Amino acid sequence: MNHVANSPPSAVAKVVLVLEALPTCRGISEISRATGLSTSTVHRILQELAALGWVRVDSDHRYLPSVRLLSLAGQSAGVTQLVRPILQRLCAATGHTVHFALRSGDEAVYVDKLEGDRAYAMRSRVGLSIPLHCTAIGKAILSGLSRAELQEVLARIPLTAMTPRTIINPDLLIAHLAAVAERGYAVDDEENEAHTRCLGAPVLDHHGVPVGGISVSALAFDLDRAKVRACAPLLITAARDASHALGLPNSAAPASVPRKRR
């Protein structure tokens, strides 16, 4: 971005400079060098953008565009286009409704949904924000965070009891998420909505950090334990394929391999 020679950039121009640097720069020092702004200015702007949900911070303290920002720029459509064939295969193989959501700060946002072949329809919709602590995709995302980031997130978000089954004790939730990480997928066992059961697996970026997730959803009677066991490998494979489609190298940890907490 150009501004008048010998004239310092305005407050708005500084924000734009930082946003323009995000696609290629991640750390504060790198963004500072690219924009010519001081590190303190860059840090302040990034902190404010993160608080507003326009950027997110990963476990290595890198700053990345959030789903909200990507959606505004029309880029989430490109992400969805890459993952859609994978969702279609999963939906056809299971017969259940399939969702794809991306993390947006302390929530996740549905960016795609394919209805299953059942006579009923799920009430979810594209664009809907969902909590992390009681949804299959949300718990899958949380299970892939470092211990430090997980504790930070759980300290910020309200562990609201959406149903009597919701886990609202932080210690119990952390133990539950460790089990999720071990098996590679999460189960929302009527924890977010009564009579609804979902399976979720994380979608990872090229650093192996969860940026979203894929889920298989159905009414609880239609997704019993036997069907959970049958659907889980299909879901894990779909999440791994989605991670690769979005740029995860084959050498990085796939969604089916638990990531150690740091």
Q: How would you describe what is shown here?
A:
The chain has helices at 11-21, 28-35, 39-51, 67-72, 76-94, 136-143, 147-156, 170-183, 225-245; strands at residues 55-57, 63-65, 97-104, 107-114, 129-131, 186-189, 196-204, 210-219. It is globular, with a radius of gyration of 19 Å. It is α+β, with helices and mostly antiparallel strands and 262 residues long. It is built from nine helices and eight strands. The longest helix is centred in the last third of the chain and has 21 residues, at 225-245. It has a six-stranded antiparallel β-sheet with strand order 5-4-3-8-7-6, with helices on both faces. The protein has a two-stranded antiparallel ribbon with strand order 1-2.
